[in-house]
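Progress against Task 2.4 (sequence-to-structure conversion) is shown through the following example record, which the project officer requested during the mid-term review.
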Amino acid sequence: MAAFNLTKLVNRKLIKISGPDCYPYLQSLFTNDLRYLYEPDRIPKRKHAIATSNVLGTFMLNAQGRVICDILLYRTPHTRYECKFSQPGEAKEPDELLIECDANIATGLANTLYAYRVRRKVALEIITNLDVWCLYPRLNINNKQQITGNDVEANEVQSFNLVTIANEILDNNITIVNDPRLDLMGLRILSNSSYDYNNIKNEIRSKFNFDNLNESAIGKYILHKYRMGIGEGSEDHPEGSCLPLECNADLLGSVSFDKGCYLGQELTARIHYTGVVRKRLMPIMLSTDNTKAPPTMPFLSGSDIIDATNGKKLGVLRSVHRGGGLALLRHDQITESSKPIHEATQVPITTWRPYWWSNVNS
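Structure tokens generated for the chain above:
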């Protein structure tokens, strides 16, 4: 029987942006094309992703093209159904979108967005009466920690307990949508903050045929996204320290290369059209004796990972939680003969190419 974990994402916050200029304002700031939220026919088809016009993965960059933060952008019941730049003298219709971001940078992001507002007719508000949840599959494929393209191509994806929904829900009390980045990231749920686990479970059971749900702590969700190779939040994407294509924005459908100009677009486009992204965020496992609770202090973000066979630097550690994590690595230099280790602790590291990397050259 398919089994799922339901986790309240206490590390995520929502910012509401409302006003008639929502679309042109955010279209000029975010890496992805907001027309996908208003015109579903434009959404590109991606393998291992669920096409949805109700939520959009994107990034916000600084003027130098470095990542400020990753974002999920949601429609609401008050989002209008067409995007356009209003003509002079034309009445402007109201509009509304929700921005999901790392809770630690929500205030800073709101201030940054406000600074770029200029004369746009928009209002910003950090939301305190909505919570973010995630429903995701409980994976158990012969106890394997690595999920590669070979597993998926061998049709073992059936045992991944894939969770998707055909009819997404948007109302004032609960929103249930597919995660647009990756199929195995499951469902994103926005609920009234008065809802607890039992309320969410009952809503899901009443609307969809999902039954075997377990409430899980945030740590299990973090390990799940690490296992998928998904970066999220300021720990995985330190502000000003990484490029969107290094964060796999292109592979996750979180950047558009034909939407026109946006903040930080020039460097992103130049890297894309040269066709070379030497470093990418990759999943890792620390080979320690105590995999349930390995020491965390020595594994500092930004510390070096080297190849034990020749001493060459392969990349840097990004984040670690209970033996799993992410690292920014030279994927072209990692071969079957490579022996990655964490230089400071000499702890061996296992890494692999995520199953959704089908278009990445070695």
